[in-house]
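Data card: per-record layout.
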Amino acid sequence: MKLKIAIPSKGRISNPAVNILEKAGLGLKDASNRKLFSSTHNKDIDVMFARAADIPEFVAEGICDMGITGLDLINEAEADVKILNDLKFGQTKLVLASPENSDINSIKDLKDGMTVATEFPNLTKKYFEENNLDIKIVKLTGSTEIAPFIGVADAITDLTSTGTTLNMNHLKIVEIILESSIKLIANNDSYNEKTNLVEAVSTSIKGVLEAERKKLVMMNVAKDKLCDVQKVMPAMSGPTISEVLSEEETMAVQAVVDEEEVFELINDLRNAGARDILVLPIERIIQ
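The structure for this 287-residue chain is written out next.
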């Protein structure tokens, strides 16, 4: 029984989604052509390309077993899916914004009967209902930023990563409605019926995420210097030590460390007595 994973066919999260599958050992055989479907290097797993906004519904309805898409789109679709992993990219925020010269500086400045334009009507409606506001919502499919300046709306809700586009369009952020990132999701039935495959994909991707910004540091250490080296060596669960040259009383030491620690660590290790130090990239960490 095959497993089908839906990933975005285009847009800012398409290439990162393909890359993370490849790093997880699920390289796409037809990725360059971007056909509707692509087989992977695993005979039991295929990939389907789709609009990111459609993926939550495709997974919820069982058209696909798993998917990669944004939390904002999952919540907007009110999709009943199982979120397996946060993929640590595509961070963005759904915000309430108003013209920079308007009197709307917080949600308290909104009044019943005002109009808000958005590409996310469900999330926006829910947000205002939670704040006991009766706001008219106008759904737009693009160019949301212009709505307040052409009389369509008093304010907007829109996605932003840095706020730069809003600033360029003379809009200010009033409130943050939702913080979003890209998620790996699964159909509830598929999670129960194809457990081994779903867990294999999830575990492999989690291993890729765990390995990011990690390095494997390997070295030789004289036995009488071992304690000094251990004192300066950070590690996930302590360094691994094995004897390599008993006649010279030399030990092989290796440990996984954070990438940002490597620069200072190398000098500390040398001063502590380590030699033949190697720093290697890590593809995956499975715990």
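Known properties of this structure: The longest strand covers residues 171-180. Residues 195-211 form the longest helix (17 residues).

See the next section for split statistics.
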